[in-house]
Design goal:
The strands form 3 sheets. Strands 3, 5, 6, 7, 8, 15 and 16 form a 7-stranded mixed sheet that branches. Strands 11-10-9-12-13-14 form a 6-stranded parallel sheet, sandwiched between helices. Strands 2-1-4 form a 3-stranded antiparallel sheet, with no helix packed on it. It is globular and about 60 Å long. The protein has 12 helices and 16 strands. 49% of the residues are buried. The protein starts with a strand and ends with a strand. It folds into 2 domains: 2-153 and 295-343, Medium-chain alcohol dehydrogenases, catalytic domain (Quinone Oxidoreductase, Chain A, domain 1, Alpha-Beta Complex); 156-290, NAD(P)-binding Rossmann-like Domain (Rossmann fold). It is of the alpha/beta class. The protein binds nicotinamide-adenine-dinucleotide and zinc ion (2 copies).
Amino acid sequence: MKAVQYRTVGASPEVVRIPVPTAGPGQVLLRMTAAGVCHSDIAVMSLPVQQLGFPLPLTLGHEGVGTVAAVGDGVVGIEVGDAVAVYGPWGCGTCAKCAEGKENYCLRAKELGIYPPGLGAPGAMAEYMVVDSPRHLVPLGGLDPVQAVPLTDAGLTPYHAIKRSLPKLVPGSTAVVIGTGGLGHVAIQLLRALSPAWVIALDVNEEKLALAREVGAHEAILSDAESVAVVRELTGGKGAEAVFDFVGAAPTVATAGGCVAVEGDVTIVGLGGGSLAVGFGTTPYEASVTAPYWGSRSELMEVLDLARAGVISVHVERYGIDAAPTAYQRLHDGTVRGRAVILPQE
Ligand code: NAD
Ligand code: ZN
Ligand code: ZN
């Protein structure tokens, strides 16, 4: 079968032929319909070998949907032919966090050598993939697979981040979204669907700002050294009750800290390596700062329900599997509008 692999540290991903895997006991084999291209893959492919944490080659793709092709011994509750989305942040399934469905925060994954698909385990950007447990599958329930695949990360991650701050996003409040790419353009829609907050989007690219307006941002402004002053002005001086940073670089994290209101939330989602100092007189009174990772199993079900309700929809660019390296290049260059999705069977 064809697979998109990261094979050599520092090199671009390659399309290669590898054997079709088989489902062992307790596992599920999926015939992949679609796989999303995330900026985190580029972050991983930028790491020096000492920081990689798992061996190469790696089949990429941590956003996946497919149909069940075979089930291993002992698998119940799922049938060949079922259309499913893959919950990516695999955990042990039995620790206290996993028991709550928060496998993204599994307490034992590192010790047990458990990695998400596409981020250590063989991923979704292949004609077939093995999912370690039916626990990590959610029925698509009629959703279009190409539209739905980014929901497993570009939907789930902002959903988890935004859900925490909803009590603060009351009428008259403001939410700021920094970076309106794959995650950010879904975040804007989630904020509009789940809260009455005024939404201000920031990006460095005019086309991304146009997309931000199209998907529901009330204001879309250039992200630069003036952004803090502009957000303060737009909010009558008080700042934003919640700031979501989908870049996470030093300048955007500084913007986030400068925009946040008294008792507001700064949520750093992007892996840009920036950090924000918190202290008396440094941040507004009682502002909180957090850096979450992905989301829980039940939250993925909630995101898919929102999509079925028609209140969020992902803008996708489709690529056949041979064009996957081009999709990564375009994401790197900042020219993808919404999310790039690879069709492994085309
Ligand atoms: P993307 O490339 O689709 O979007 C990034 C956007 O940020 C682009 O629109 C780009 O123009 C914009 N941007 C770049 N520099 C900017 C700046 N200085 N100010 C404002 N906007 C700027 O990327 P994505 O796939 O949506 O991922 C976003 C980030 O989130 C990445 O860092 C990714 O690694 C990270 N991520 C984190 C998690 C998590 O669990 N914490 C999960 C998924 C992705
Ligand atoms: Zn991702
Ligand atoms: Zn666990």
